[in-house]
Specification:
Elements: E1 3-8, H1 13-23, E2 29-34, H2 43-46, E3 51-54, H3 61-75, E4 80-82, H4 89-99, H5 106-113, H6 115-124, E5 132-135, H7 138-148, E6 152-155, E7 166-168, H8 171-180, E8 189-193, E9 197-207, E10 210-220, H9 223-228, E11 235-238, H10 248-261, E12 266-275, E13 280-286, H11 294-302, H12 306-316, E14 327-333, E15 335-336, E16 341-345, H13 347-354, E17 358-362, E18 378-384, H14 387-400, E19 402-405
Parallel strand pairs: 1-2, 1-4, 2-3, 15-19
Antiparallel strand pairs: 5-8, 6-7, 6-8, 9-10, 9-12, 10-11, 11-14, 12-13, 14-18, 16-19, 17-18
Helix pairs in contact: 1-12, 3-4, 4-5, 5-6, 7-8, 13-14
């Protein structure tokens, strides 16, 4: 029975779901490395674990390696070590190389984590992507702006989920955004042209470099706009028409992207744009499962368990291609104001009008602290065979539900 290690920094709701599902895969012994004590897990989940090691910093490759060696001494041969967090991918790859565990190595992972390196490789391969540059100073940033014009996106080269990401509309905003990232030679900030377009993701299951199954999500609106406008309740829509010819161009570009970056086995989360003239551009891609409930959306669209399927793919190199059946969407319930949730309005009306479409929901609770991201304090997931039915229902949810903070 293979011994597999899952590495995670914290017990977020997503991490807990991954741990529980991986530990439930038949004929697998799961070991866990985490910054938080195992006693913080639900007993029904912790009881499924074969081994555990705690570290101070799960993103420190040396600490992760020491913990893996500890579990190796306890349980014997490590079949695989995996993680779903963006920032943990290179430390996990370092452990693989140090202990001779199969899986993608450090240099390949750098292609996915270093966004400037990524775009250099993609541009060389002829893949359409946003213009970019690294800036070690405000002077460098202003020189880039002079060539490309405004707006400009400013972010760390190894960022994730729009963290520390800013849109600069003029020289003053650009200078402020660059200084917030505190750049210097060897610690540059990444600059990108701001593409005026609709934004999507392209999520893929791959085995030995071959794409097996993919999903496309439409962001409504773009995450950067959601970050700038605190009143917006974000939506993500997976259309049923993913396999139709209208997406042939992004399929070709996405698969070429994965080949160029050296994708082997696992899931990837690629973000891309479609301009008003119909042309596309790749934004960036991560070698891990998507966040923001997108794994749940993919699961509901094809009636399978996306997380468990990822686990079997990573552990056994097996993947049964599911049949796409539905359009699916998520409406993220985002509070108005600051502080804690003091009231939630409109849920009864939503249940009455579109309740028959709801598959999953996490409703904000009174007293709950304001969420740390644009995903807000809860979500409602809906599905139907007709994409337009789901699109209209998402609009109904975000125009009806109000989460009040105070």
């Amino acid at each position: 029975m293979p011994f597999v290690i899952y590495a995670a920094p914290n017990y977020t709701p997503a991490a807990t779901t991954f741990i529980d599902k991986l530990a439930s895969i038949p004929n697998v012994q799961l070991g866990l490395i985490c910054q938080e004590p195992v006693s913080w897990l639900r007993q029904e989940t912790s009881s499924k674990l074969a081994a555990f090691a705690q570290v101070e910093n799960a993103f420190d490759g040396n600490q992760l390696l020491a913990a893996a060696r500890q579990l190796l001494a306890q349980r014997g041969n490590i079949h695989r070590i995996i993680g779903a967090t963006e920032q943990i991918q290179i430390p996990v790859a370092e452990v693989r190389e140090a202990l001779g565990i199969p899986g993608m190595g450090v240099e390949t992972m750098k292609n996915f984590r270093d966004k400037a390196r990524m775009k250099d490789l993609l541009r060389k391969a002829g893949v359409p992507c946003a213009k970019h540059a690294l800036a070690a100073s405000v002077k460098d940033a202003l020189a880039f702006a002079k060539k490309t014009g405004y707006p400009i996106v400013v972010k760390p080269p190894d960022g994730a989920a729009s963290q520390a990401t800013y849109r600069a509309n003029n020289e003053q905003e650009l200078e402020a955004a660059v200084l917030k990232n505190n750049p210097s030679p060897g610690k540059e900030v990444l600059l990108e042209e701001f593409i005026q377009a609709d934004e999507f993701s392209f999520d893929t299951f791959s085995l030995n470099g071959k794409p097996l199954f993919h999903s496309i999500s439409h962001y409504l609106p773009n995450p950067l706009e959601v970050l700038r406008e605190p009143w917006i309740q974000w939506q993500v829509l997976i259309p049923r028409e993913v396999d139709e010819p209208q997406y042939d161009d992004i399929r070709q570009a996405a698969f070429k992207t994965l080949e160029t970056l050296g994708m082997e086995t696992g899931m990837t989360h690629l973000e891309w744009f479609r301009r008003k003239d119909g042309s596309i551009a790749i934004s960036e891609v991560a070698a891990r499962p998507p966040g923001a409930q997108i794994t749940t959306l993919i699961s509901r669209a094809a009636d399978f368990d996306c997380v468990s399927a990822w686990g079997r793919l990573m552990i056994f190199g097996e993947f049964e291609v599911p049949q796409r059946k539905y359009a699916v969407g998520a409406a993220y319930l985002r509070g108005q104001g600051e502080g804690k949730v003091v009231a939630v309005h409109g849920l009864e009306q939503v249940n009455a009008e579109v309740g028959h479409l709801i598959t999953d929901a996490r409703t904000p609770q009174i007293g709950q602290q304001k969420g740390a991201t644009y995903e807000g304090e809860g979500f409602i997931i809906l599905r139907h065979p007709d994409t337009e039915v789901v699109r209209e229902a998402l609009g109904k949810v975000v125009s009806t539900v109000q989460v009040i903070l105070g």
